[in-house]
């Protein structure tokens, strides 16, 4: 017995010694690892993040300063040009030479009408010494600075610009001579330029305008705050002695400041993972096999390989199943009726769902024939489904808007009934345009909305565009609503209905952002749609002379279909522009999220042409900016973006897809060939026809160009219109996929993000399934007629092998 005991004691002592050393190493490793993690996160928060924040503040402020300088420079240049144009009037020169007081007074009144934004405008007679000796003329001037400006104007041809203080306020005057016999003097309040800058800057920066003369420095425009003076950016302006100083606002700094809560949560998580993993090894130390214990046998190699093979097969089956499910939910592919909805499987519900058309649930909205596919029962069910989905996401309030279609009030009543019965509160904004509802989401900070609209479709159609948590529903999210209806997976409750109005706030927001530097005569064609009561008022407040056309809401659309991208629908607008000698014509679709333009010469540029005008301005002011466009757009657009220093990104068609992509990429501008244009710079990233038109007028007036001049500077290629071939709903995707799988084009670039776009050396062709109807669409562009015909024939030949009847339509 003694001998047996003596042989075990040394083994236990060795094992205990080995465990103690192992555990000590584990503890030391844990302490060291945790210390490194904490030190790294401390360095990031206290050293790296402040440095990065300073860099972000300086970058944003510098970008704003560059933008402000461009705005001031172009505004001054535009005003100088307008004043010089008045001074070059030969009739005015004759009136001054004849000392015709009556004619001069008439010209002065005309001058005041030409510059309604000015404090005052005058025509001053000049003598050999620079100003006439008559006291009547001298007394019309405020001070010696204006007298000196007149003297300077005699010796040069340039417009003289000075800022000076008068009666405790700052004024900015422009003087242009009229054939040495007189001069035009136009004076603005400095607040005019201050408002212009603040409108552009918004809540981003504060501006200070400094005028220097020798050792003297005067502040013409005072900033609201100089709290972050260390981040101030200074820019020299075109007027001698003028300097613009830009300071970031507190709101900008707070926006750029990173929230370190997540950083420290990650730190805590890392520490917890390190501690837990070391604890596992620490505990395992007690279970280390003794030297006498045999090691576990290794699994046979064949068994391991067999298991790996089984895993690969299981993974392949899972991927195939996922692809099958994805295809069933893709855009307009309804899920198989044989597959029971998820909610029904989970809850075992067997209540009979209302009969509802599956074709209504499209890629990025719900749409159908109002009286048959969107009857009252269907609309109540859709309301309950949307409300239940919102509640499942923790959302309890939904904004509601509608267009002017005859069926919209009925659908609104049914929809509200469904929403309220599921327990969500509804804020009804009445008859508005779709972008106004998107703006209301931002202004009221309610990210859930339903817009009742048939968009650009004929009068018998209607539908719903739905947003939850500031994201437009599309694809499988739309299908999920249908599954809820099939399964009767609805919440029960009692919501409240309130009413609100957003029109004036929407107008004020745009007028506070957009600067139109000269008065334009604009024809507005609302097409009897939802913009009829808002667009004329908006552009009048922006300073335009508005000629309304079809600006009475009428759900019958008696004058033309509410789709301005169809050339024939712009005939009346072209005639009105010509008749009234207007500078530009603007047309909106039925719900106001798309825009079309008619130039003074009657040109109707496609949306990718408009995008070229807007993108050039955007990337010149924001070097390196990303610009988004869809697969239908001309290849000239990305070429122009690259040429001017931007980054082009092609994406799939559809306003929901574009909005999400803009949010993901941070793109400042996006556009679709269908006329949806999205601004993220100074706006919110949704498609807005009225805001887009206002920004277009700003770009044109600040650059001093007409629409025709802007279009004339662009290169052109030959292109086809969008070709729409009717195809059964259940066949359109299969046809496009078959086309893509069987194509054998050589020396091409293939883009398959939305259908198939084939870029050849001398042009390109596109085939895709429509997301808005039972059809496939095609479009072609090329350098020459021969190349265009060749590409089109190549597509036609392949399509003929798939379905000869389709090829006959091409």
TrEMBL record:
Protein's UniProt keywords contain Metal-binding: yes
Chain segments carrying region Disordered: 325-350
The keyword Magnesium belongs to this UniProt entry's keyword annotation: yes
Annotated keywords: Isomerase, Magnesium, Membrane, Metal-binding, Phosphoprotein, Transmembrane, Transmembrane helix
Record domain Alpha-D-phosphohexomutase alpha/beta/alpha: where: 360-490, 505-602, 608-712
Catalytic activity: alpha-D-mannose 1-phosphate = D-mannose 6-phosphate
Pfam name, any one: PGM_PMM_III
Superkingdom, taxonomy of origin: Bacteria
Enzyme class of the recorded protein, top EC level: isomerase
Sequence similarity: Belongs to the phosphohexose mutase family.
PANTHER family the UniProt entry points to: PHOSPHOMANNOMUTASE, PHOSPHOMANNOMUTASE_PHOSPHOGLUCOMUTASE
Name of the protein this chain belongs to: phosphomannomutase
Lineage of the organism: Bacteria, Pseudomonadati, Pseudomonadota, Gammaproteobacteria, Cellvibrionales
């Amino acid at each position: 017995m003694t001998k047996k005991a003596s042989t075990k004691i040394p083994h236990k002592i060795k094992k205990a010694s080995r465990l103690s050393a192992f555990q000590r190493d584990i503890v030391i490793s844990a302490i060291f690892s945790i210390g490194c993690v904490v030190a790294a996160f401390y360095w990031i928060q206290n050293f790296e993040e402040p440095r990065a924040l300073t860099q972000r503040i300086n970058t944003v402020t510098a970008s704003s300063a560059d933008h402000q300088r461009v705005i001031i420079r172009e505004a001054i240049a535009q005003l100088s040009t307008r004043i010089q144009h008045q001074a070059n009037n030969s009739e005015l020169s004759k009136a001054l030479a004849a000392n015709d007081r009556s004619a001069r007074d008439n010209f002065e009144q005309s001058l005041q009408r030409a510059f309604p934004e000015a404090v005052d405008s005058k025509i001053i007679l000049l003598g050999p010494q620079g100003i006439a000796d008559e006291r009547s003329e001298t007394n019309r001037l405020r001070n010696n600075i204006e007298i000196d400006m007149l003297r300077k104007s005699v010796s040069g041809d340039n417009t003289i610009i000075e800022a000076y203080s008068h009666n405790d306020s700052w004024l900015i005057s422009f003087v242009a001579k009229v054939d040495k016999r007189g001069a035009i003097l136009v004076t603005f309040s400095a607040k005019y330029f201050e408002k212009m800058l603040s409108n552009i800057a918004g809540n981003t920066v504060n501006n200070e305008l400094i005028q220097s003369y020798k050792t003297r420095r005067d502040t013409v425009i005072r900033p609201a705050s100089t709290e972050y003076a260390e981040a101030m950016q200074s820019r020299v302006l075109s007027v001698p002695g003028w300097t613009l100083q830009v300071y970031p606002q507190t709101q900008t700094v707070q926006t750029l400041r990173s929230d370190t809560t997540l950083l420290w949560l990650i730190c805590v998580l890392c520490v917890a993972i390190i501690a837990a993993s070391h604890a596992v090894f620490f505990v395992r130390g007690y279970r280390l096999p003794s030297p006498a214990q045999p090691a576990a046998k290794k699994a046979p190699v064949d068994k391991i390989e067999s298991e790996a093979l089984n895993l690969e097969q299981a993974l392949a089956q899972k991927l195939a199943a996922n692809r099958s499910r994805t295809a069933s939910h893709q855009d307009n592919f309804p899920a198989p009726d044989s597959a029971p909805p998820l909610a029904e499987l989970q809850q075992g519900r067997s209540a009979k769902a209302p009969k509802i058309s599956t074709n209504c649930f499209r890629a990025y909205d719900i749409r159908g024939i109002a009286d048959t596919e969107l009857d009252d029962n269907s609309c109540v069910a859709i309301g309950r489904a949307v409300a239940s989905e919102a509640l499942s996401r923790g959302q309890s309030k939904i904004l509601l808007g509608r267009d002017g279609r005859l069926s919209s009030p009925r659908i609104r009543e049914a929809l509200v009934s469904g929403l309220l019965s599921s327990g969500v509160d509804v804020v009804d904004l009445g008859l508005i345009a779709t972008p106004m509802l998107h703006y209301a989401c931002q202004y009221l900070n309610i990210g859930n909305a339903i817009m009742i609209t048939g968009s650009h479709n004929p009068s018998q159609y209607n539908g719903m565009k739905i947003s939850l948590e500031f994201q437009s529903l599309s694809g499988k999210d739309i299908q999920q609503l249908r599954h809820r209806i099939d399964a009767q997976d609805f919440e029960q409750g009692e919501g409240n209905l309130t009413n609100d109005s957003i029109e004036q706030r929407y107008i004020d927001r745009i007028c506070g952002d957009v600067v139109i530097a000269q008065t334009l005569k604009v024809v507005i064609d609302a097409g009897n749609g939802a913009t009829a009561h808002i667009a004329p008022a908006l552009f009048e407040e922006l300073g335009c002379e508005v000629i309304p056309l079809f600006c009475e809401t009428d759900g019958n659309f008696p004058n033309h279909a509410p789709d301005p991208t169809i050339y024939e629908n712009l005939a009346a607008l072209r005639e009105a522009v010509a008749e009234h000698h207007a500078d530009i014509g603007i047309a909106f679709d039925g719900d106001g999220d798309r825009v079309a333009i008619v130039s003074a010469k009657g040109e109707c540029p496609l949306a990718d042409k408009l995008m070229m005008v807007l993108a050039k301005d955007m990337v010149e002011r924001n070097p390196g900016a990303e610009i988004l466009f869809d697969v239908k757009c001309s290849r000239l657009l990305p070429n122009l973006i690259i040429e001017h220093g931007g980054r082009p990104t092609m994406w799939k068609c559809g306003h929901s897809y574009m909005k999400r992509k803009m949010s993901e990429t941070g793109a400042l501008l996006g556009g679709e060939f269908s006329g949806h244009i999205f601004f993220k710079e100074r706006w919110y990233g949704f498609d807005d026809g009225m805001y887009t038109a206002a920004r277009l007028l700003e770009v044109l007036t600040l650059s001093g160009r007409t629409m025709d001049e802007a279009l004339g500077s662009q290169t052109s290629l030959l292109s086809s219109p969008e070709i729409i071939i009717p195809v059964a709903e259940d066949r359109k995707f299969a046809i496009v996929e078959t086309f893509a799988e069987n194509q054998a084009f050589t020396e091409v670039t293939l883009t398959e993000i939305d259908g198939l776009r084939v870029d050849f050396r001398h042009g390109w062709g596109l085939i895709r399934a429509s997301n808005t109807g039972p059809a496939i669409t095609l479009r072609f562009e090329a350098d020459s007629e021969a190349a265009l015909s060749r590409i089109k024939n190549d597509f036609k030949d392949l399509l003929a092998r798939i379905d000869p009847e389709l090829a006959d339509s091409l």
